[in-house]
Amino acid sequence: MSTLRCPRCGTTFDPPARFCTKDGFSLVPGGAPPPTTTRAFGLHRTGEVRQPPARRGDPASGLSGRVLDGRYQMEMRVGEGGMAYVYRAKDRENGKTVAVKVLMSRLTGDHEAVARLRREAQVAMRLDHPNVCGIQAFGEAAGMPYLVMPFLEGETLSRRETRHGPMPAPLAVPLLRQLCRGLQHAHDAGVLHRDLKPENVMLVADGGVEHAVVMDFGLAKESVAGAEVVKLTATGIVLGTPEFMSPEQIRGKPLDARSDVFALGVLAFELLTGRLPFEGNTAQETMLAHLTGQPLRLRQANAALPESLERVIAESIAHKPNDRFQRMSDFEEALGDCVGGSAASQ
Question: Is 323 a catalytic residue?
Fold first, then answer.
């Protein structure tokens, strides 16, 4: 059997490996070329101008130019993840541009994969906030499960970081506060994200003002879940991304909002410094550092940042959940107090 590769980072593996040890994505046949010649930046790569080639033998990868379910005119495939392809499409009923996420054909017979996509739709359809990418519809056409979401014109935070490096605090803090508000909304609805990372944040311009939107609730989990949901999320296709996972998530412990606080703290650290507070050469080393190591201090990585911001970030990534901010709203308030409070409230 040929080698396998991760569709996000491009790392190759030998069979019988099924998932990337770096970022948890399901592996795809290694003979197929990566979707672009540049680093992958999550599912909504609206900044990419070249359409990824259709995957041979997979009907779900070649829907460009077709009409899905009699309603969605599929214009262009803009990306792929470990389980699905994402297309830019036109909703023929209202003329709006949308993003359509279609499950890979090889997974349509996988009840767990279909259940995860359905769960993503069920969770995100309950959310309605300017800093959260909701879901508009879920359906199935020609045996292909799909979900529909707003098409966000912009770029992922990961791509912005790659292009420009660390973001100055006066620009970063307002975006981080917006993410706090979006995640607090999700938490108030009883939903934990569990996979917050730069690839799952879109920067979208609206009226000349850029704002941050949390995407991809594919790993989201209700704070209080029934046995069926617990079984679904415990099987472990993807448990998270090692660089951003809280210690309790790595240990497989019950999670609450404070795990998302930790992930956002790590994201903030990287955004402000270009480095991670816990570093390792492999996924295993990174997770071990999260469990046993001391995080790098913010001003060790960027001495120009204020001490007040260093204290806030340090509290957000504290090892014990009780030592962190207990709510996203607390994290947001602390960020506003330490850097540009009035501007950051936008």
Answer: no
Q: Per residue in 264-307, pLDDT tens? A: 999 999 999 999 999 888 888 888 999 988 899 999 999 999 99
Q: Which backbone phi and psi does 286 adopt, to 5 degrees?
A: -65, -45
Which domain covers residue 4, as residue numbers?
Answer: 1-34
Active-site entry in 195, 206, 216, 260: 195
- In this structure, the answer to whether residues 79 and 133 fall within a common structural domain is yes
Are 88 and 232 found together in one domain? no
Number of domains in the chain: 3
pTM: 0.77
